[in-house]
Amino acid sequence: MSEKVDVEEHSMTARVLAEIWGTFVLVLGLIGAAIFAAGFHEDTNGVGILGVALAVGIAVLAAAYSVGRISGAHFNPAVSVGLAFAKRMPWKDVPAYVLAQVVGGLLATTLIYLIATDGPLGFLLMSTEAGFASNGYGEGSPGGFGLTAVILAEVFFTALLVWVVLGTTHKLAVVGFAPLAIGLTLTLIHIVTIPISNTSVNPARSLATAVYGGAFPMSQLWVFIVAPLAGAALAGLTYRVMLNRKGD
């Protein structure tokens, strides 16, 4: 994500297509693991929280190394907004990136939904009634965490993600390792926060699942747009002070 490259050498069309693809891969890996492999809804030997967390880290690695050189590999509106606040991305490019990320996420959950329609008897109904791996608080939280806890987790852990993105893609950082560091950070974030909010830190991911999760996840979606964007703004605005870097 946000690999250290000169994206300006690529057209906006190429960058948008790269963001669609990368977000599609990220959401497909994360939500596909949650829906098909985690074993949340029945007594099976599923991959559980650790498996889902590893899935998102691996998906980010694959997507970032494949198209990061084109778009910078944001795959997340919060990352794009955080980079803009840090003056590492022009604000004029943010709307196109965010739209591409939303489209990529929706394409991924649509594919997962279509696969689930031909699953075992009752599988699709079970998945949608469980919220289709949507984010939530209160009754929507896997661990029953309240609104305040979820907001704090989403703000801080999104800020952590954006801080790592900014640090690992700095011009003085070691070249080629940003996707690895960011993928591992996302894995850590998911291990910690899946029980709290089912982990958003990415508004495009939250919208993509809420669309198929039903009215209840949609009613709580605002939290997973506002909180990650607030965390991104916090990281972007404090980046230079925190890392004491000049001349970015």
TrEMBL record:
Keywords: Membrane, Transmembrane, Transmembrane helix, Transport. It is a multi-pass membrane protein. GO terms for cellular component: membrane. It comes from the Bacteria. It holds the Pfam family MIP. Its main location: membrane. One of its GO terms (molecular function) is channel activity. It is found in: Membrane. NCBIfam families: PRK05420.1. Belongs to the MIP/aquaporin (TC 1.A.8) family. This is Bax protein.
